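Narrative summary of target 7.
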Amino acid sequence: MRNLLNPKWLLLLNSLPVAVLLLLLGGKFSVIQSLLRPESLHAWRMVGAGLLGLGALHTGYALWCLWRRQALPVAYGVLALLLNLGGMYYYFSVGAELLFPPAVPRWMVGSEAELYAFTFLMPTVAHATLLLVVYSVPADRPVAALPSFGVALGVPLGAFLLAQLLGALPGSFGHTIEHLLVTGLFIVAPLVFLFFLARGLYVVVSRKAGLWHEHQLLWKLLIAGVLPLLGLAVNASLSRPGVFGDFRSPWFYGLAALNALLLCLPAPAGRWGRLALLLGRSVTLAYTLYFFVVFLPFLPLSVLAVILIGTGFLMLAPLLLLLVHAQVLDDDLTRLRGAFPRWALTTTVLAGLLVLPLGLTAAYLHGRRTLHAALAYVYAPDYTRPPQPLDADALLATLNVVQSHKAIDVEWSGRGQPYLSTYFNWLVLDNLTLAGDKLDYLRRIFGADADSVAADNWLAPAPVRPPGGPRLTRAQHRSTYDATQAAWISWVDLEITAPDSVQPWNQPQYATELALPPGCWVQDYYLDIAGRREHGILAEKKAAAWVYAQILNEGRSRDPGILHYLTGNRLGLRVFPFAAGEVRRTGIRFVHKEPVQLQVDGQLLTLGDAARQPAVGEVATAGREVVYLSRAAKQRLPRVQRQPYYHFLLDVSAGQQERKAAYTRAVRTLLARQPLPGTPRFSLVNAYTRPVPAGADWQQALIDAPNAGGLYLAGALRQTLAQTQLHPATTYPVLVVVTDRAAQAVLDPDFADLAAAYPESPAYYVLPTRGPLEARSLRYESARVWSGAPAPGSPALVRAWPAVARPRAYLPDDQQASIVLNQPAVPVPPTAEARWLTGLRLQGYQQLLALRPAAAEATRPPAIQASFRSGILTPLTAYLSLENEAQKAALRRKQQEVLKAHSALDAGDDTPPTAVPLDGEAVLLLAAGGALGWWQLRRRRPAAA
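Modeled conformation, tokenized:
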């Protein structure tokens, strides 16, 4: 305990927390400053100057004491308490309302921003209090512990009586006195309580009283064993995951029992045995320190908890345990100093202290590697290499942790573990998350059947005409021909009207979809907001979706509009909000090579003038990586009819062992009844897809295949389609999935991005062991039965490009233009390239990602930057019109986070968006949720009175 007098503690317990606090507040201020009034800006300047001064004073004084080699005096403890408690009082009673006024949406600052000062100044207060405890106990004479315990127990009783007295005070005078006294008591009463409690325990543990020496083992069992285990049990019983965090893992109980055992063991006689015991106690010191830090923000609530519920004393268990643990280690070091050099003892303590953090880090890093390998396999697979099985158990454990972190209540940190969850999110998830549908997707692929599919896509397709919602009442368009890039520039202006039945508390959004013809790109977007035309910001799609979702769930009439790709060539447009009878205007600018027809919410628009259209043939990028074929040019290509063959995808997922013989009979029956000219091919499908080599015995391969994991049908279809398009041939596959579990198969909504791989027909088929062959569509709603589909291998003509002799692609024989990926690589477009050609290049890049998704991670940032430079919308970006500068600042900050992380990670999750902090580091403050509950109660009491 006397080591706390060393001035180096000021650098750790004050300088560092104050620096972090300044960084956190600076990040918040940079986002919301445009929303603040002058009085709030003044409060920010005051708080910033105060924190800078506080940090500078502590740092300077610590360095001066270290230079003078003197211990911290008692005067420092008194002054530090006054300064920090005064700062917290100002922050809670005055500053918080001005720093984060009601006009600032909670999602921009995080729901815990009001607790920043309390959380980061509390370590200094705790250190100063313990310093005063040390100085208050004379070292040269015995001291009684009972008076200190008596005063500590009297504080809750006194606070209770004072609360009853405050409730009896009448009128505004009573409210004013209550405001001052309650705020003061919230800080002073816990401080007095903890001071005398810590003093009494310090007297006992340091053997300045005989009580500890006479019953030392019982005290250790109580403080190190009974209280921690009872606290873990009570925390878990109060709510399903736990009030203060999810500590239900057997590891927490096991470490608590191990810690108690090590602290209660008698010291061995030999020096090596005692050194080993010191090492073991140093290992569990990390466990003790963790719970002390977790409960540190809740210590002011301990008085209230003792008053309300007897188990409130359990909140003090980490503090008591830390005092006992520190004293036991001090005894060990004192007895070993003559047996070992000082450096050896210091190394032993530090090595032990690092065991648990390093072990936890190693486990998290393994989870990160496994998760990223799974994300790469699912969302960026390399079809040129055979799949490498990964640690499915470790992946599922990591996914369970991610899921446990997703549902966090705004006021109580009931999910995850404080600080550990933050470390996990930073190390494993890069401060992002996985959406609910992706969690379900990965679980079903690698062997954990999900009960339901989570709907967590904020930009999921919405009904084209939601019942009772806003309607498109007018659509106007204007087109001009731009000779410099030989393309049309067309504006489509939409007028949307809300019905008169819209209620003020339930303002709807407008949502519609439109399909872009080949060779037509979006180049601009606007939304009229409050009498001004706000052009959309072209941003990374996930960041834009996150901001749009926050505004929708904000509960205020803010005005966002978003335009983005849904899938394939389909766009989604959303505008929010609409008041009763309100008319709003929005518009989109298109750039297209030829006149096109566009259907917007039931209205057919013709963009461009065919009479003024110059002749268009093949148009290619500078290196002919991507080629645009006009309708006329495609009609001049030769027609061919390719030979179909069956490609059977055989289900070898978990639980299908007994069906292998039935699958074999079903395949034989289909080949006999509906034969196709080509030689059939086979692939074995579970979590991985393994093609059976040509000429090999497919029946034996089916028998030998191990059944494990889920039926990852999406991966099998994508791999087969990509290989078909990359290697065009005079034959083409008719895909048949052989399974009785089609409803449990892991499927994408569609495979429109691979439409170039199935020019004959988008049909694929499901073959059960009993029942007829079922057709489904690769282009739309891939899991739904397609009743009007053609029979397998029905004759269909396609166009061969560039010639029949050595075709590089086969195109559907329709009246549409086509875009052909001519080379296996598409470089980032140069800045000087014409906008339409940039759009063509980016379209080719999207085709490349569908064929070679492993290239996505390296090429995603330059492709997004090319979209930003050109203004061309792509599936990686979205146009977002925002109302104010704060929303734009929030978008920029979230975009930076997303662009630094893995492309498959998500900006948010399926929790209420207001519970998602803007910056991942803010989750550090979840442990202060209890104090937030008290703060809200204090704010409501005067109004209720």
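DSSP finds 26 helices and 24 strands in the chain.
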